[in-house]
Specification:
366 residues; binds 6-O-phosphono-alpha-D-glucopyranose; 10 strands; five-stranded parallel β-sheet; 14 helices
Length: 366
């Protein structure tokens, strides 16, 4: 009830602001990289597997899509990510040396459980879940488990479950990297230090809320929006578009920015806001030229830019500066203002934020 909401208007807003605490709780007790946090015997299994297969739905699928970048670049292990409802009905080529990873807030999503069982029926016995509910079917079904400590998530649109899933997936990446000889002691210490600083870093991003509210007032009158990201931040763009469509009912889609000219550029007019995730990474210069393509067609840019990107506000280009660039963990920071943008836009449109029409928190039927 209202008492539990404290100063917040909705559970979604409360849950967005709980993220520093949720991440800290998820990291509690973790001092270094130890595969056995996933369960006894994980070290031997992690040494033996040749690839990772991630299965999930919805926002959890976008957490998995982000993890693919980490697993391939940091742990150097081939990774595929599949939407559970597709994988379970598709002919695929199984390899018994696969680590099957399911990601689920509830641990009860019917398609994800069915996809897990399907993978097992194909001879893939090594199963691991990143899950928020200790007593769930998913945790019972999987050999290994990492519990996110997001706490109960009530808002249908997932927020703190997503960022804590990313923390769990990064720990999985580091564990696989370590047992496979891809992680020096120095790199391990640096990654762990960055993880431990995350709650403070997310807190600093939450302080951007007033600037995001100012944008949301303009967004509330739109019927379409395009989200752009590249590389590691493409799944964050997808998640930002999903949040906006789920709760504000504005049609939104996400594209990897390099793909603009193969279709979505045809949609760009002055009536099309283009939200862009702009971290200061190796794709920055490419992204900037993509943004020029949008401006040249009159599209209005809303850019979440890291401090040193030299992307400046100008007519038709609005910029919110992110407090710090965060290397490979940057998606965990960049998703937060997109959650806030969806939330405040939905509030401005007066929708039922915590219970959007036609959607359920947990989809336990096919
Ligand atoms: C529903 C929820 C989403 C969630 C998805 C997967 O669609 O509304 O927020 O991402 O299910 O749920 P899971 O519990 O498996 O993460």
């Amino acid at each position: 009830g209202a008492a539990e909401l404290g100063p917040y208007r909705h559970y979604m807003q409360k849950e967005i602001f709980e993220q520093p605490r949720a991440i800290a709780d998820t990291l509690e007790g973790i001092e270094g990289v130890n595969p056995e946090i996933f369960g006894a015997g994980a070290t031997a299994v992690f040494k033996d597997v040749r690839q990772v297969l991630i299965l999930a739905c919805g926002t959890s699928y976008y957490a998995g899509s982000t993890a693919k970048y980490w697993l391939e670049s940091v742990a150097r292990i081939p990774t595929s990510v599949e939407i559970a409802s597709e994988y379970r009905y598709r002919d695929s080529v199984p390899d018994p040396h696969t680590l099957v990873v399911t990601i689920s807030q509830s641990g009860e999503t019917a398609d994800t459980i069915a996809a897990l069982k399907h993978a097992r029926s194909l001879g893939m016995e090594q199963t691991l879940t990143i899950c928020n509910v200790a007593t769930s079917a998913m945790v019972r079904e999987c050999r290994f488990a990492f519990l996110t400590h997001a706490g109960v998530e009530i808002g249908v649109a997932s927020t703190k479950a997503f960022t804590t899933q990313l923390v769990g997936l990064f720990l999985l990446t580091l564990s696989l990297a370590k047992v496979r000889g891809q992680l020096s002691a120095g790199q391990e210490a640096e990654h762990v230090r960055q993880l431990r600083h995350l709650p403070a870093a997310v807190q600093a991003v939450l302080a951007l809320e007033p600037q995001v509210i100012a944008w949301s007032e303009e967004f509330a009158s739109k019927e379409n929006a395009l989200f752009l990201g590249r590389g590691l931040h493409y799944p964050v763009a997808l998640e930002g578009a999903l949040k906006l469509k789920e709760i504000s009912y504005i049609h939104a889609e996400a594209y990897p920015a390099g793909e603009l000219k193969h279709g979505p550029l045809a949609l760009v007019t002055a009536a099309m806001p283009v939200v862009t995730v702009a971290p200061n990474d190796q794709l920055l210069e490419k992204l900037k030229s993509n943004l020029q393509e949008v401006r040249a067609r009159g599209g209005e840019l809303f850019v979440f830019a890291d401090g040193d990107t030299r992307i400046a506000s100008a007519p038709g280009t609005h910029v919110i500066r992110m407090p710090e660039h965060y290397g490979v963990l940057s998606p965990i920071l960049h998703v937060v203002p997109l959650q806030l943008l969806a939330y405040h836009t939905a509030c401005a449109r007066g929708t039922d934020v915590d219970k959007p029409r036609n959607l359920a928190k947990s989809v336990t039927v096919e």
